[in-house]
Amino acid sequence: xxxxxxxxxxxxxxxxxxxxxxxxxxxxxxxxxxxxxxxxxxxxxxxxxxxxxxxxxxxxxxxxxxxxxxxxxxxxxxxxxxxxxxxxxxxxxxxxxxxxxxxxxxxxxxxxxxxxxxxxxxxxxxxxxxxxxx
Length: 134
Fold this sequence. Notes:
3 helices, alpha+beta
C-alpha cells in the first residue's frame, strides 16, 4: 500500500499531496475544509483537523480516492506519451526509417570483410528498397 501525505495550508487553502514520495497535483482531490492533514502508511493513518476536532485514526483511505485518481492521471499521461511516440514514428521520413534499420557501421564493415562489397550492397539495398524515397 502507498504512503500518502496530504497537507492543506490553512492561510491560503492551498494543499500538497505526496504519494510514495512523489508530489502530485492536489487540485483534483476534494477534501473537507476542516481537514488540515492526512497521513497514511500501509494500512493505517491519521486525519488532523484544523477546527479543534480531535485527530482521528483511520484504517481506510479509499473514500478520498488519492491512489485511484493518481493512477488514472498517471495512465492518461502514459497514454499521451505513447500516442506522441506513435505519431512520431508514423511521421518519420524515409531517411530516419532507413537510419534506424541499417546495421551498425561495425556490422557493415564485418559484412564487407566476410561477404565482400557485393554482399554488403545487397544488405543495404534491402533497407533502401523497404524504405524508398518518397
